[in-house]
Amino acid sequence: MKSAELEEKGSDIWQLFREAQQNILYLNKQRIMAMEELDRVKREKSSLLDQIEQLERTKLINTRKDKFSISAELLLRIDSMVLSSLIDSKEASDFRRLVMDSKVSIVDYFSDIMHKQDTRLLVELRHFSGKSRTSGYHIIHICTEMAPVVSVGSLAQYVTGLSCALQRNGNLVEIILPKYASLNLNEVHGLREVEAEFFSYFNGQMHSNRIWTGVVYGIGVTFIEPLYYSSFFSREKVYGYSNDFERFTYFSRASLDYIVKAGKQPDVLHIHNWETSIVGPLFWDVFVDQGLGDTRIMLTCQSFESQCVEQPEKLALCGLDPHRLHRSDRLQDNNKSHLVNVLKAGVVYSNKVIIMASMQTKGQIIHAMSHGLEPTLTIHKDKLLVAPGFDSSAWDPSADKFLPQNYSADNMKGKSVCKVSLQQHLGLQDQASIILVGCIFSDISDVELENLKTLIWMASRRGVQFVFMGSGQTPGLNKALEYFEEELKDENMRFLSKNDEALAHLVLAGSDIMLCPSFDDTVLQVPLKAMRYGAVPILLNFTDSNFGHFMDHDLEGTKFSRYIKDTFANMSLNQAIEGLKNNPSKWDKKIVDAMTKDFSWEAECCDIHISAYTAIKN
Fold this sequence. Notes:
Elements: H1 2-63, H2 67-83, H3 89-101, H4 103-110, H5 118-127, E1 138-142, H6 154-168, E2 172-178, E3 189-193, E4 198-202, E5 205-216, E6 219-226, H7 244-261, E7 268-272, H8 279-287, E8 296-301, E9 309-310, H9 322-325, E10 340-341, H10 342-349, E11 352-356, H11 362-368, H12 374-379, E12 384-387, H13 413-426, E13 436-441, H14 446-460, E14 465-470, H15 477-488, E15 493-496, H16 501-510, E16 513-516, H17 526-532, E17 536-539, H18 544-550, H19 559-567, H20 573-582, H21 584-595, H22 601-617
Parallel strand pairs: 1-2, 1-7, 2-6, 7-8, 8-11, 11-12, 13-14, 13-16, 14-15, 16-17
Antiparallel strand pairs: 3-5, 4-5, 5-6, 9-10
């Protein structure tokens, strides 16, 4: 009897256990479904917010164009009138000056009639009476990149950021680009083909081109599309072909032919890197007497690494005299005397040369970073200027759509939220009081990896968390970081091999400290972004000798270089961690001060360029 009762009770218990197990499985299933549903709702919400933002942007564009867009579009229509012989170059020049000097009244007068044909628009232009003359400059960029239309390196953001800043400061800016097959046309408004023939010189003949015009962020953009040499810009990549010299020489010559044909008389032709440096000798040897006597040339170099050396006879392709230019004081390469150097042409034949660099002084660049151009730069050192630049609109924690909560120097609460969000996303211990060090690389050397191992070993023993992210721009970088992660196996460390834009913003916002391989980072600009997001930039390879080097108070340095040298260059990672732990109030003050500094295109960069334009015009 007892045995039967025990068996029955045992059976009941197993029944209850199975039912409990089924209930647990059911609840787990319901929990997973609820989490999936929550994720789906979050995704839908995010998608809906993006759609609303896009609709609002489109509505704003369609209902009200700003004064820069109206002015830019009107200037492009004037070009079209010249190319189709409706007006001559003299009248076109007068109209351009009228537009430049009368932006405010032009918006009211022309905003409702821009859709009309050129003939009707011409009548209105002739009736229009402009206001008083302003002191702004007319600048035309002849370049190979412009964000977001075509972006490869730092040049694209620079051209767009500087152009917008210059226009906001009362200058008129236009841009000429090749009509690449891979253009991003989403932000090009009013794109239209100019219905007029345009020919340019190349290789002993005149060749037909198709001209397109549009407006990007209020800036008039002209695209040149070769017809006979259509393969020049119909390729997948922007750079990296064996005939790059021919491609960009054709474009440079066509740009100058177009400027003359359209009757433009800009104050400054602004050229960039070696790709459009040939404009310098072309302008002075061929074009200056074709109505461009008051125009001057300015060259910007993102660096001197890429220079383009070629056989001298190739200069004849664009109409230059190889014999005249193949001289040591002109285009002859300083190292390979049988060749010509195209970037050297830009330096020699420009009135001013601006070098984009955050930290280096002019002397340091000439002597240590000129890549064989030191003799040329030394001769022309009086025309050299150094400028920093930063796209602050795309990297602003107070308006960053990628962050779970925005913050600013006035209200830093959101930064702790961002840190905890980053920790949770990466499976780190989620506590705002834990020090988190971020690092975003575009490349890393073996020496830097060894330094990292030492730093991580020392800091992780104190509970510091590390997040490393490869930018995905250098082959083999992610493999090196993965090997590094496998070797160290630290629970406080995470490696992100995927180049994720949203996560990059969160890493900056969630970090207390950003390790930087270099303070002069013109591509990723991590030091500038770090300060903007309230993280202290610290040199990865800090030594006492670095401190002595940085304390060279060269008056030619930029405001950014002087600030970062005085504030952060003499600090190691260990010192930064100590400061954050032991004196948080002093640390917070330093962070807030860094966040309020303005190193955008609008600030020092724009001032340096306007000063350069003024100097060469005077």
